[in-house]
Design brief:
Blueprint: E1 2-8, H1 17-26, E2 31-34, H2 40-52, E3 56-61, H3 69-84, E4 90-93, H4 102-119, E5 123-126, H5 136-145, E6 151-153, H6 155-162, H7 170-178, E7 180-184, H8 204-223, E8 228-232, E9 243-244, E10 249-250, H9 254-269
Parallel strand pairs: 1-2, 1-8, 2-3, 3-4, 4-5, 5-6, 6-7, 7-8
Antiparallel strand pairs: 9-10
Length: about 270
Amino acid sequence: MKTQFFCPFWGHEHLGHVAFIQKAKKSGYDGIEILPPHETSQKEQIKEECEKNELAIIGVWGGMIEGDFETSLDTYKKHLENACSIDPIFVNIQTGKDHYTYDQNRAFLDAANEISERTGIKVIHETHRSKFSNSAHGTVPFLEKDENLRITADFSHWCCVAETLLEDQPKAVELAISRTDHIHARVGHTQGSQVPDPRAPEWQHTLETHMKWWDQIIALHQEKEKKFMTITPEFGPFPYMPMIPLTQQPITSQWDVNVYMKDLLKERYNK
């Protein structure tokens, strides 16, 4: 099984689509993960440039909530439809809201299922703060009641919410691992969803904890004889990335950190 690595457009919007895609190719990625624009001409430009550079596309949307429940659900549908329109291999989306009821969040998941079935594009739901999947324990009821629910494992958020490395919630993590189809390889800690730099020795235990979870996910997909697994190294820009006070300068390079994670995991999984 080959593990494929995708470069996040998030944080690199200043490059523009073409320069970003070309840089991702030169940096050794297999594809890009991008929130597609709504303009048809821009989507066509992205698709053409990715095809030229032999890069696959993962569509993404951040699931920002606008207004009340009904307005939020309508916004969610529109953006998910748009993410599906860029011909991605699948869409990764942030779904619902942590303070919505189970039934309200279920309405978001049902809408995603309907759009997925109609478009033929697989939809995977990211584990993320403030969404239906904001915590390990809070996601369990959704996974238990819907055996078809598939997730993007971004356990960095769960560490931040729980203020632990989830060592006290092994069954919840095990269930989530069994439902994972995509990995966001960002390393979270007990007080935040992104360590300042995963290359630093003081964060090695935290990095290794996350890699053990990713190892289990990869192993499960290998057991099922899947052809490939996808990973997006997803260390983000400010405010995920701390800045040096009073300078507006990031403490390190977001691009370099993500390339480091790509290379580290590529060596680990594509031997």
